[in-house]
TrEMBL record:
Protein name: Thioredoxin domain-containing protein
Record-linked Gene3D superfamilies: Glutaredoxin
UniProt xrefs under Pfam families: Thioredoxin
Domain Thioredoxin span(s) in chain numbering: 82-161
SUPFAM superfamilies: Thioredoxin-like
Superkingdom of the organism of origin: Eukaryota
InterPro entries: Thioredoxin-like_sf (IPR036249), Thioredoxin_domain (IPR013766), TRL33 (IPR044193)
Organism of origin: Acer yangbiense
Length: 170
């Protein structure tokens, strides 16, 4: 049982859930509306850039054409079907534009796409593809595919960790 002092230091339920949602990747429009939370989007939906352009980061150029960006649920589903029907190894990066860790690893992800030309690289923003990415609980999440099957999953960032996983699956 918690003492009165411990209870006094516990945050209110709404503050706890807002903090928890932001840290675990649940800050999505659909789910926030279900809980009665209102999260304003900057710039409006119609003016917002999608995919890698929507991150606002200065990303390295992709020299091999093996880096794709999914901007809608249909687009992501088509890309995942291509991955599952091909024999090409692939990695999918599920991130979010508001996620600080995602913003830190994304330039390295783009740079690594140049170092591993035989792999297909895909970036999907969970807010742009909410129906297809509803199973993603943490951002960034990386899914690795080989022969059309998902063979590995990595949570969080770390350029060396990501490089090692890519080397392992290439």
């Amino acid at each position: 049982m918690l003492s009165r002092t411990a209870l006094a230091w516990m945050p209110s339920p709404s503050l706890f859930w807002l903090t928890h949602l932001r840290c675990t990747g649940f800050q999505r429009k659909k789910r926030s509306e279900e809980w009665g939370l209102k999260i304003e989007m900057e710039g409006g939906e119609e003016n917002k850039k999608k995919g890698l352009e929507g991150t606002g980061l200065n990303l390295p150029l992709n020299r091999h054409g093996n880096l794709k960006s999914a901007s809608t649920d249909d687009n992501l589903q088509d890309i995942l079907l291509q991955i599952k029907s091909s024999k090409t190894p692939a990695v999918v990066n599920y991130g979010a534009s508001w996620c600080r860790v995602c913003s830190q690893i994304l330039p390295a992800f783009c740079k690594l796409s140049n170092n591993f030309p035989k792999l297909s690289f895909v970036y999907a923003d969970i807010d742009e593809c909410p129906e297809t990415t509803h199973h993603i609980r943490y951002t960034p999440t990386f899914h690795f595919y080989r022969d059309g099957e998902r063979v590995d999953e990595m949570f969080g960032a770390g350029e060396q960790r990501l490089h090692d996983r890519l080397w392992l699956h290439s």
